[in-house]
Amino acid sequence: MTNSTLFFGGPIITVDPDCPAPEAVLIADGRIIAVGDLTRLRRQACASVVEVDLAGKTLLPGFIEAHSHPVWAAKTRGAPVVDVRAETVPTYAALIAKIKRRVAVAKPGEYLLFFGLDAQLHPDMEAPTRDFLDALAPDNPLGVQTSNCHGLFLNSAGFAACGIDETTPTPTGSVIERDANGRPTGKIAEAITWSALETFYTAWGESRLAAEVEAQIHDFVRNGITTVTEHLYLPFYKASYLAALKHGLPLPRVACYQQATSPDMSVERMTDPDDRLWMAGVKIHADGSPFIGNIWLTQPYLANNITLDRMSLKPGHTGGTNYPQEYFECMVREYFAQGWQMTVHTQGDRTIDMVLDLIEAILQETPREDHRFRLEHCALMRSDQITRAHAMGVQCSFFINHITYWGAPIEDALFGPERAAHYMPAGTAVAKGMRISLHADTPMTDASGLALMQAACTRRAGDGRCLGESECLDVETALSSVTIDAAFHIGMEDKIGSISVGKHADLVVLEGNPLTVALDQLTAIPVAATWLAGEQVHGL
Amino acid sequence: MVCDPRGTAIPLVTVGGYLGAGKTTLINQILSHSGGRRYVVFVNDFGAINIDLQLVESIDEDRISFTNGCVCCTLNDEFVVSVTRLAQSGAPLDGILIEASGVADPRALEASLRALEAAGHARFETALYVMDADQFGGLDYIDTETIIDHAVASDLVLINKADLVTTAQIETIMDTLKVAAPYTHLMPTTHCGVPLEILFGQFGAPRQRKATITPSQHSTFFRWDAQRDGLVDREAFRAFAQILQSQFFRAKGLVRFRDAPEDVYALNAVGQRAVITRIPRAKAAGPALQLVGINPQPISDMARIDRALESLCAT
Fold first, then answer.
1. Which of A350, A372, B75, B176 could join B42 via S-S bond, C-beta 3.0 to 4.6 A?
2. How far out from the chain centre does Cα B64 lie?
3. Which residue(s) pair with B128 in the sheet?
4. Average pLDDT over residues B209-221
């Protein structure tokens, strides 16, 4: 037994009902080998064991981020992308001024990208047109990406660099806004956004990406996160991950879900005996982002200046799906038939009806035990849909940080108080017996297990209002949904997610006990240390 | 707006800014002219602290104590522990000031501050940022953007060394920051001349009365006050407090509500924060509503505040 560590001296929350609050935990060679009485574990430990006295700090299983995009986050938000999210650039006027200052020092032809334009949070926001952006930056490819990641505004040089013009057909699952002659007018959305952005990322080169991936990795482990997903995996991401592992970076375990945009993509059956990087399944967008109107609803959006002017929606807008229904069904059937776990991005309730109908049909035709079909985000899922999903064994992962970041506009500008009270209905799902997970969807919001728990337990928006008291989780359930239940959602509940003998030694040490602090103070608890595969990767 | 149940927490101010911007000048001033108030200042480096030795009571490795009751400590990993000890010691303390330099990023201390607030030991009052007006125009893109981003994250920016530049240069800086950081208050200063009462939100007299308060040399500040007798509606007051918060850099006051006439509440608004706290064991006496507003510049729309006040008292 080598590399052995014994933890004791503070509350230990295992999230394992068989031994919920032991006195000590012994790990060796990257695994948890004993949990229980300190005297017994001391006897069991080898002579070279390192003892860690928690000194009152709390030990928990490492947090699991059930839906994230580490490499994509590095591409999207890392330098030289300019951060213009509302938290650092509070208004659209400030955003334009920031773009002007950047353009003023740009070399001719330099690729310029700005991330974080927000129709809900930039109070004076206008949709920038191609002509407006041309006037700002005539000599540089320039893009402004929305904070929800789903939309991009380009100038003429940007369109030229990305090879999008009046002759370009709009790919299935994408949006290109055009004038009467078919000339793109500035805004593109959904899948084509992400392929266009690759033009910018490629122009900046590989070394930039490696540095930003490393920064992203440290962001996760600093927040106690030991497992993540790459929920828009594309085959060329693999090199970044392998490089991180080769260089010994503390890369959290990565469950990859390949993004499918057509039914004929090959999905590599990537496995790893160390459980650091593997292919967990396939991800498909059924609809898009509620913040740009690309979701399918039974009841329309509210009509006001935010939806009509800033988001450019028509009164009575009920949105739609990303792909034609038949095309979408063809993709789901194809990858399900290959045996993959399916995760489907669904936000609007009408989209969820469509997806549940499809799952029901597929399961009738080709039943599969324990398919763990996942619905991602689930913003406007109705109570009857939760009942139906649960009966079919469909899992729900909630993007609960929507409430923290955009709670006020969700209620006031987009959907009104009734729908806001059940937006991201985690409480209803739990009450109906579901095992749920929560996620931050980084780069959309910042990854933190404690922030997810606080959001789910308090449902407090940035302005302090509570969106639907009845949907709040109790803190134990919230903790399960960022540990063992998130592990279940990625099919790893026998290997991670709790402090149980035989599991990987992925642990987090918190300065305070999350089960006893006030619910609105969860995010005030500092993360003292993070352990990944038995190695300390963060903290003193 | 939140109601803070921890009315007794020590007010805390952070001071950010690049080396040479004027942070130490500010700290030296606070330590030597505390006006009978007792402050604890955390700094990265004692070297720059330049205070009349006659005022020094004792010097230890990580702490200088002054005869006026102020203390200067080094900022290290033990910061949270140190503040916790100060808070638990029970000694009267009027404020904590932290020089958040090194990285010069006012956001760097956030986790520690949140932990202290959560424990009820401190109340984060003002994120202050000091910038050098003389240097700003000559900075490269990255340094310029860094200062602008810091300004957004701050409640009050001192555009310091204003005496070294022209009025037109100050206006250019103000114009840039007004667009970039519309919710931040801006104040051109020379030698960081800013009254302490604008940084710390004490209402009324200092807790220690050893010395008399030095009269303010900053008569250029715009001040507004109002008293009204009738009890006010709690919800209407919250709305009114937001108007005050949007107009004044600092607004403070005492108020009694119709639904709880015996309880006295304190309003404390600075920058983007406004807190209404019940003052434990306070006696209900004097006018039910007493308000003070302070701003670096005159308020352009005083009529709006007067109207709002009248309608508050009418509800």
1. B75
2. 23
3. B15, B156
4. 37
Q: Is the pLDDT of residue A191 over 60?
A: yes
Nearest CA in chain A to B146: A88
| B5, pLDDT greater than 60 | no
Domain boundaries, chain B: 2-199, 222-314
Residue to test with chain A: of B110, B145, B177, most A Cβ within 10 A: B145
- Is the pLDDT at A355 greater than 70, yes or no? yes
Residues 6+ apart with CB under 8 A from B140: none
Chain A residue with minimum CA distance to B113: A524
Closest alpha carbon to B216 in B51, B69, B23, B33: B33
| Domains along chain A with CATH numbers | 4-56 (2.30.40.10), 64-69+210-535 (3.20.20.140), 89-204 (3.10.310.70)
Q: Is the pLDDT of residue B231 over 80?
A: yes
- Rounded-to-integer distance, Cα A376 and Cα A360, Å: 17
Nearest CA in chain A to B176: A97
pLDDT value for B6: 39
Residue A34, amino acid: A
Instruction: Answer yes or no: are the C-beta atoms of A118 and A154 closer than 8 Å.
Output: no
pLDDT band at B208 (very low <50, low <70, confident <90, very high): very low
Taking the CA atoms of A104, A109, A111 and A114 in sequence, report the sign of the dihedral they define.
positive
Name the residue facing B183 among A90, A464, A521 (closest C-beta).
A90
Mean pLDDT throughout B174-186? 93
Interface residues of B toward A, Cβ cutoff 8 Å, are 1-2, 111-112, 114-115, 117-118, 141, 144-145, 148-149, 152-153, 176, 179-183
pTM value is: 0.82
B222-314 CATH, one of 3.30.1220.10, 2.40.50.140, 2.10.60.10, 3.30.360.10: 3.30.1220.10
Q: Which CATH superfamily is domain B2-199 in?
A: P-loop containing nucleotide triphosphate hydrolases (3.40.50.300)
